[in-house]
Amino acid sequence: MSNPTVLAVLVSAALGLGVLTVVRRATFQSRVTPPTAANGFPLIGHLFALAKRPSEWERILFEGMDPSVNIVRVFLPGRVLYFTRGTEVARKMFTDSTLNKRPATDDALKQLEIHETGITFNSRIDSWKRNRSTVLLPMHPPKNFQAFKLNLLGLAQNTELLIEGIARPRFIRSLAPRVTVQFTELASVLDQVAASAQPVLVNKMLNLLSMDIIFDVVFSVQNRESQSYLSSLLDPDLPVSEHRFLDMMKGLMDGMTFFLRMPKWGYTWVPSIRSSAKKHRANVNIFIDALQQHIDDKKLEIEGVDFSSTSNQLIDFSTSLLIHPETSKPENLRELQSILRAAIAGGTETSANTMSFMLYELCKNPNVADSIHDEVVRVVQDVTGDGQGDVTSEIVGKLAYLEAAINETHRMYSIASMIGRELEQDHVFDGYTLEAGSSLTVLTQANHMSEKLWDNPQKFDPTRFLDAEKKTEGGPLGLGFAFTPFGYGVRNPGEALAMMEMKVLVANVCRRYKIRLVDPTATVKTRLGLTLQCLDLPIVFEMRV
C-alpha cells in the first residue's frame, strides 16, 4: 500500500472516530454528566492534553473549572474517560466492589501475557479467586532439607494465601532478618566506599539491592549484584555490575507502559509503532523465558524431596507454590508465572524508587535523617539492650517516625501517579452519571500535593503523619482517601513486602551513615513510565561517629 493511500486511510479513520466522538457527546447531553475538561480539540478530543506529563493533567484538564468540580469528562477518538481529584470519588472507586476491573484492554493484556491470569489485572473472577484462595501448605519440611540449601524464608505450616502469602504477617516477620543480612553484607563494602568519599548512584545501588533481596526471598538465589556494583567503584578495573534480571524488569515495565497506553489500532496499523510493539513483545518474552528458567531450576532443586519430616522449617516463596498440587499443575503454569511476576515487580520497582527519593529528601533535610537515627538507636536499645543489635520485625513495628518519613516520601513522590478502574456499568458519582465502557482515573499525585487536602504540601514533613487525625471513612492508614500510594484493596501484593524492605534498609542506613548530595543544589531527576522512577542520583556516604 502506497504512502498516500496509508495517509488517506488514517485520515478517514480519524474523521470517522471524530464523528463518533461528536455523536457520543450529543447522546449523553441528556444525562447529568460531568463537565467536559478544558483544552479539548475538535475531532481528536484531548489527545494533546494527555500527551503532557501526568503531573500537569490536573492543571490542564481542570483549567477554568470551579474549585468545587472534582470530576471531568475527557474525549479521545471513539472513547470517553473520566478524571477525578479529591477524596469522595476516590473513596467510592476504591471501596465499591463492582469497580474491580483495571482499565486495560484484553488485547493489551494478551500482548503482556497476563490476560485473565494473576491478580493485578485479572478480571476473570474464577481465576482471580483461585489466586486469592487458601492454599494448604505442607505441615512438615523435606528430609535432608539443608542439603538443598533452601533459605529459612517463606511460608510456615498451616495455611496461607497464594498471592497474599508474600504479604502475610508470618512471612513478613521472617523477611526482616534476611534483609538485615543483605544489608550487612552490602555495608562491608559500603563502609570502604564511604571512607573513600566516592559518590554512589543510590538509585542503581538500591535497584540492585532490591533485586538481590527479592531473588533471595522468592528463589533462594544469592546474587550480590549490589555489592559488585560498590566494589567496581573502589576498583575501576572491575566490571560494572548489571543485574541481568534487573535489565529484563526494566524492559518488561517499558513494555507494560507501551501496551497499556497505546491503542490497539496504533500498533496494528502504524508501521513505526508496530516496530516498537515488536520490540516490547520481545522484551516481555525474554522476561517470561528467564522467569520460567528459574521455576524449572527450582523444580529440579526440590524434586524427590520428602516433605513428611516432623520438624518445622520455613521455605522460600517459589517453593511454597511449587509443592502445592493445585498451583503446580501444568495447566496452571501461567498462573504461577503471574504470581511470581507480581511478587518480583512489587518487591523491586516500588521499594527501590521510593528509597531513592527518600534518600534524596534526607540529604535535603538532614534533621529528619538524624531523627530517624535517634529513633532507631533508642528503640533497638530498649528492645535488645544493645544499641547495635539487629533491626528485627519487632523493632520495625516501633519505628513510628521512620514509617511517617516513608509515608511522606510516598506522598511527595507518587510511584503510581494515577490509579484507574474500568466502568463495566453506569455509575453515579457526585451526582453525575458516568457511562459504562469508560474508565475512571483518580489523579493520585494531584491529591497527594493538593493544598486543599494538605498543609504546605511542597514541604517534606513526616510529622504530618504522626499528628494526623484518623478519619471515620477509614482508607489507607485510616487517613481517608487523600493518601492512596498503593491504591486501596486487595490487588497490592507487594505493598507489605516493599514496606518491610524499606523500613529495615533505611533504618540501617540512617543508623550507620550520614549522607549528602554531591551537588547540594541538584534537583532529583525522574522518569515516568508505568511507575515514577528515580534517575541517576549521586550521593556521598559518611560513617557516623
TrEMBL record:
Gene3D superfamilies linked: Cytochrome P450
Pfam family, one: p450
The keyword Iron appears for this protein: yes
GO molecular function: heme binding; iron ion binding; monooxygenase activity; oxidoreductase activity, acting on paired donors, with incorporation or reduction of molecular oxygen
SUPFAM superfamilies given in the database record: Cytochrome P450
Key word Nuclease present: no
Keywords: Heme, Iron, Metal-binding, Monooxygenase, Oxidoreductase
Family: Belongs to the cytochrome P450 family.
Protein name: Cytochrome P450
Origin organism lineage: Eukaryota, Fungi, Fungi incertae sedis, Chytridiomycota, Chytridiomycota incertae sedis
